[in-house]
Amino acid sequence: MADVGRLLLVFGVLLVVIGGALMLFGRLHLPGDFTFRSGNTTIYIPVATSIILSIVATVVLNLVFRQR
């Protein structure tokens, strides 16, 4: 039963970290993020942000699942 509590705690902290990163990167445009504007249409493609979030998520998930 303690393992379930620990797993829920880790996932909760992970959600907080991801939510904070999304809030931060939502306001920050990195050099690798592309924005195309044409008339009333704007297309935003966050390539650099996606790569950074992928690396962070990979490291966190490896740390979580290696301890098991």
- Which sequence of strands runs across the widest sheet? 1-2
What does the main sheet amount to?
Answer: 2 strands, antiparallel
**Radius of gyration from the CA trace?**
16 Å
- Kindly state the percentage of residues in helix: 55-70%
The unreliable regions are none
Listing every helix as H and every strand as E from the N terminus to the C terminus, the arrangement reads HEEH
What is the fold's blueprint, element by element?
Elements: H1 2-27, E1 34-38, E2 41-45, H2 47-66
Antiparallel strand pairs: 1-2
Describe the structure.
The protein has 68 residues and is an alpha+beta fold. It has one domain (2-66). It is built from two helices and two strands. The protein has helices at 2-27, 47-66, and strands spanning 34-38, 41-45. The chain has a two-stranded antiparallel ribbon. Helix 1 packs antiparallel against helix 2. The radius of gyration is 16 Å and the shape is elongated.
Descriptive terms for the model:
alpha+beta, two-stranded antiparallel ribbon
Describe the structure in brief.
With 68 residues, the protein is of the alpha+beta class.
